[in-house]
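Suppose a colleague, Dr. K., hands you the sequence of a protein chain of 184 amino acids and asks what its three-dimensional shape might be. Before reaching for any lab equipment, you can write down a predicted structure in token form. Begin with the sequence itself:
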Amino acid sequence: MTLLLKLSGLIDRLNTMVGKSVCWLILLAVIVSSGNAVIRYAFNASSNAWLEVQWYLFSAVFLLAAGYTLLRNEHIRIDVLSSGLSQRAQAWIDILGGLFFLFPMAIMIMWLSIPIFVDSFVTMEHSSDAGGLIRWPAKLLIPVGFALLVLQGLSEIIKRAAFLSGHIDSYGAPAAGHHGGAKE
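The predicted structure, expressed as tokens, is then:
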């Protein structure tokens, strides 16, 4: 279990780093959007490229921060049903939900999006709009974002299993009398 908890910690650090980094893209998206609006209304000029940059940035935040959102337990849940349950019952719900809902959905989307990205990259697909951008960077966000989500789902399942087996007291802290997250 020690090795799995170390893996979980690495995944948590990766998604924390990615999540905190892409948060800055929100500010950049606001600046691009504001600048685009000012230029459009003040100078009666616009560019499809700047409009596409906005949705690229939004897509990057949405997709790349999904794992971070799961790590922070900020995703949509069924708390109305599970809030009255014990922490052990909630851990089982999280494990089963991860195995039977999160993993199949995220792995399927990741797997199916890879050929779409590859085709876009190989053909150097561009937007059909005049002055539009190349599309493969946006399409790459899909498999990468879902890979980060799958990894975080694995980390969460490891933490729930460690909690259920008594290796940690809660989903993040080592159990009393234990060091490094593993039983002695």
